[in-house]
Write a structure and sequence with these properties.
Layout lengths: L10 E2 L2 E2 L1 H6 L10 E12 L5 E11 L2 E10 L3 E2 L4 E9 L7 E11 H17 L16 E2 L3 E7 L14 E11 L3 E13 L2
Antiparallel strand pairs: 1-2, 3-12, 4-5, 5-10, 6-9, 7-8, 7-11, 11-12
Length: 197
């Protein structure tokens, strides 16, 4: 199984997450011949006593949607003791069988995620639509009880790693955020990739 270390595309937490996978198929920079649209999103919070969270599709303009949401930590801290993992699936049809792709983020600490995938891939897309931190050096700040992360109309921004070509279809990204024993959240985002001329 191939594990992405420096390339993971974009969604929080959750966001999170399509651009990182797209960048794993990077080609020489030429005119991009594809685009995407969000289809659905679902957040399952199995530990409401520890966190409050929601994510939804928000209309930006006709036919264009972003991701909006809020996550509030109620107890303790979330840092080296918190973990994130993600996986990606593809189907020809939205109602078809989704097959797992050989790209994933295996379990890694929140600090490692912030200093790697977030800093190099996600930050450019989230810095202007959320209160996520702008990481310039080494990130090592715990997320503390009472603090909230807020996202409003977030979309994935192209960067130097955005591939010119990407296979059309429906992509499902599943991200899991957890602190052993008392935080369990799972975010699922489905997007359609289509060809443009």
């Amino acid at each position: 199984m191939k594990v992405l270390s420096n390339n993971f595309a974009k969604f929080l937490i959750l966001i999170t997450f399509l651009q990182s996978f797209l960048s794993s198929e990077c080609v020489m920079p030429i005119k991009k011949d594809w685009d995407y649209r969000f289809i659905s999103t679902e957040l399952i919070n199995d530990t409401p006593d520890a966190t409050q969270a929601f994510v939804e599709l928000s209309r930006i303009s006709r036919g264009k949607y972003g991701l909006s949401g809020n996550v509030t930590l109620f107890t303790g801290t979330f840092g080296e003791n918190g973990f994130i993992e993600m996986s990606m699936y593809r189907s020809v049809r939205n109602d078809g069988d989704f097959l797992k792709l050989p790209y994933e983020i295996q379990k890694e600490s929140f600090f490692k995620f912030m200093n790697d995938h977030y800093k190099t891939i996600l930050m450019d897309s989230l810095k202007d639509c959320s209160n996520m931190p702008i990481v310039e050096g080494v990130y090592a700040t715990d997320w503390k009880a009472g603090e909230s992360l807020t996202f409003t109309n977030c979309v994935f921004q192209d960067n130097k790693d955005t591939p010119a070509h990407f296979q059309p279809g429906f992509y499902k990204i599943i991200g899991r955020v957890f602190r052993p024993d008392d935080i369990q959240m799972t975010l699922t985002v489905v997007a359609e990739v289509f060809t443009v001329h």
